[in-house]
Design brief:
- The protein is an alpha/beta fold.
- It has a single domain, classed as Maf protein (Alpha-Beta Complex).
- The chain has helices at residues 10-20, 44-59, 91-101, 169-175, 177-190, 192-199; strands spanning 2-5, 27-30, 63-72, 111-121, 127-139, 155-157.
- Helix 4 (169-175) crosses helix 5 (177-190).
Length: 205
């Protein structure tokens, strides 16, 4: 089963294939260089669907996309779908901006969650399946850890004094929003009926 991943990020492709384990019938491939969707949606689901449909249109293959970000309760859900564009600069600068905006928020009101929406479409861009998963935690007062990326250094695990950036890649994949969403999507793909739908095979009565 060949599915195009609606991304040009080779690291993401490797991560998903590693999480999939030994599934010889599944082949994920990166989107072509001309893949450049305009993420005009207002939710993670809408943006994931936009990316998946563009990848399917460009390749003529079923396509899989995800969209994810950080939701902070005290900031009314921000940065949300704008997580990667929260400010100009790099991950460290975005973390510093968020910590500054949260400086006056007391410990009991710093709840947050990473959210991931994953969407699978067929060759025609019709949605076959979608999942959304959350990884709850809280925003700390300082950055810790060297692993991960994005907001991982300031995202503290629920009821623990360690951040996502202090987890090993294996530990993070077991807990993370993307890991949860991908395992749910794999469960869908593993059913023979769903596999036939993705491949466009007729269903038996």
């Amino acid at each position: 089963m060949k599915i195009v991943l609606a991304s040009k990020n080779a690291g993401k492709l490797c991560e998903l294939m590693k999480l999939a384990g030994d599934v010889p019938w599944l082949e994920l491939t990166l989107a072509p260089q001309e893949f450049s969707p305009k993420e005009t949606g207002t939710t993670f689901f809408e943006n994931a669907a936009i990316k998946a449909r563009e990848a399917a249109t460009l390749t003529g293959l079923p396509a899989l996309a995800d969209d994810s970000g950080l939701i902070v309760e005290a900031l009314n859900g921000q940065p949300g779908i704008h997580s990667a564009r929260y400010c100009h600069g790099n991950d460290q600068q975005r973390c510093l901006k968020l910590l500054k905006e949260m400086a006056h928020i007391p410990n009991g009101r710093r709840d947050a969650a990473f959210l991931c929406s994953m969407v699978l479409v067929n060759q025609q861009g019709e949605i076959l399946h979608s999942v959304t998963r959350a990884w709850p935690g809280r925003i700390g007062f300082e950055a810790k850890g060297e692993n991960g990326f994005g907001y991982d250094p300031i995202f503290y695990l629920m009821d623990k004094e360690i951040t996502a950036a202090q987890l090993s890649p294996e530990e993070k994949n077991k807990l993370s929003h993307r890991g949860q969403a991908w395992r749910a999507m794999l469960s869908y793909l593993l059913s023979s009926t769903s596999a036939n739908i993705v491949l466009g095979k007729p269903q038996s009565n």
